[in-house]
Amino acid sequence: MTDGSTDVSRRAFMRTATGATAAAAATGTAAAQENATENGTATGTPAGTATANGTEAGTEAGTESGDGGGGGEAGPPDFGGFLDEVENFDGSVVDERGNDTVTVEVGVDANGGAYGFGPAAVHVDNGATVEWEWTGEGGGHNVVQDGGDTLDSGEATSSSGVNYEHTFEEDGIYNYVCSPHESLGMKGSVVVGSDYPTKDSGGGGDGSESGPLGVPGSAKMLGVATSVVMVATLGMAYVFMRYGGDYEMPEE
After folding, report:
1. What is the model's pTM?
2. Of 58, 127, 180, 189, whose CB neighbour count within 10 A is largest?
3. Is 166 helix (H, G, I), strand (E, B) or coil?
């Protein structure tokens, strides 16, 4: 091949390839930046919304605690499954904070007869007195703490009226039963103050969800742009070497 056999020269090829590479790289960078900006806007707004919701939830919890008249809100009490099979316990705790004296009925209709405490779970202030008032139904009942000796009304009795009371002076959760009818589900609990076991809120409380780590969109776009540049450059090199150039080819 002679010098005049083609208009394409190595110098022209290099200028063309360099220009194409720069243009493709600039395009890829611009696309990556645009994609990163879009991703930041899309993901940033929901994150901000979640934070706002978390603040609102915290404010509501604080207001609810203030209305109760007690101390700080420690969160949902964890009964450790103690009340799971109690028929008249639906997961809610009656908030009696702010009251010096609280009444719990003994022998309310639950668990297949007059075999329940009403309410099954109650939240009181430290220093409050709880009175257990027998309804006179369901035979003899008593109040005995489960796993402790703080609560003990003695032998079961069927007489109506307030047969037992206790003033709580330490925060915590006090689970108790009616000994004769424990197997039927006659159980109750008193939550005292603000220092007591609480349910796990699910890991951190920031409301964010974690998932598998992925490649950012900007990196993907940059990779695509780089691949296009490489393919284009190699393609032009092939065309140049196959059909043009200012170098000599060995004669056959």
Report:
1. 0.54
2. 189
3. strand
Please report where in the chains the tokens 């309310």 appear, as a residue.
108
Strands (E), the chain: 94-95, 101-110, 113-118, 121-124, 129-134, 144-145, 161-167, 172-177, 187-192
Tens of pLDDT along the chain (252 residues)?
A: 455 444 545 556 556 555 655 565 555 555 555 554 454 444 444 444 333 333 333 333 333 333 444 444 678 999 999 999 999 999 999 999 999 999 999 999 999 999 999 999 999 999 999 999 999 999 999 999 999 999 999 999 999 999 999 999 999 999 999 999 999 999 999 999 999 999 874 444 444 444 445 556 666 677 777 777 777 777 776 666 666 555 455 555
- Interacting residues of 27 by C-beta distance below 8 A, sequence separation 6+: 225
Q: Which of 124, 75, 73 is nearest to 98 (CA)?
A: 124
Supply the CATH classification number for the domain 94-192.
2.60.40.420
The rounded distance, in Å, linking the Cα atoms of 252 and 244 is 17
